[in-house]
Amino acid sequence: MQYTADELKGAGTLIKNQLLAGGNYTFYLYRPKNTTGQSPNLSGSGYFTFETVRDANGFYPITTSKLASGSKVNISGSNTLIESPYIFSYELNTNSNTPQTSSFLFTPEIDVPVSGVFFRATGDYDMEVSPEVEACDVTQNFQQGAQNYPTALESILGSGVGTSTLTPNPVNIPDRWVVEWDGNQVIDTGYISANPTPYNIVSPIISNQRATLTSSLEGKVAPEGGTYPLAAGGTSPNVILSDGYPEVNNIGTYSFIKSNSTSVANVNVYGPLPNTGWASTLGCPVP
Fold it and tell me: Domains in the chain, ordered, with CATH?
């Protein structure tokens, strides 16, 4: 789930997706581009705060859930941790392995519900929390205007068994969904679009849209292995065309049989192109 610098300023913003107890959630805080043109990125340090929502009087009553309790591991550029069961803060962007980026790993002890905590940051940081977690049958949306390779989603399917159906909506710009459940890959859509033709090779013409796709994938690792460009060939839905990049297909139908009580399905959405935006729903199992 993404949060903009404007959302994180001042009083901050409420958490948009639940965090499940025992899950490992990586918080990435990025410096946005400096729009003044004086330097490519903003610089200096900042602070990130995770705070349980207080009561109407500004306190934590004895009944308040300790939503900030859990393990915090500094990955890079997140230092000077200050914490209590209700709130924790990191100093950012100091001694980072990646300039302009800070990150840490949080493993909550109890479930953190939607709107249960505030996120705040000083220093003009954008943020991404990965993976995103949502119940089955709930649509997850990716805001148009950015790309991610991949966006990691977790869908909670429950303990029931039956057919679970993926409903991807890549609109026009191609994206790819790969679903893993119970240790196995159960769905791979390949790259799909509601209008795939401009993103394919229409012999002998290479369209501007095809060129955008190939340049966006160049050097990236394919989910099936190897780095683009790949050798031509393969089987549907992952056919590599003569230029070494994937064929884009029409949107199809996708489902798998959930045959045991394993609850969590991992959905990786590969959206490498600029200005992509998509929606994704993984259905609850239907007996």
Answer: 2-130 (2.60.40), 134-282 (2.60.120)
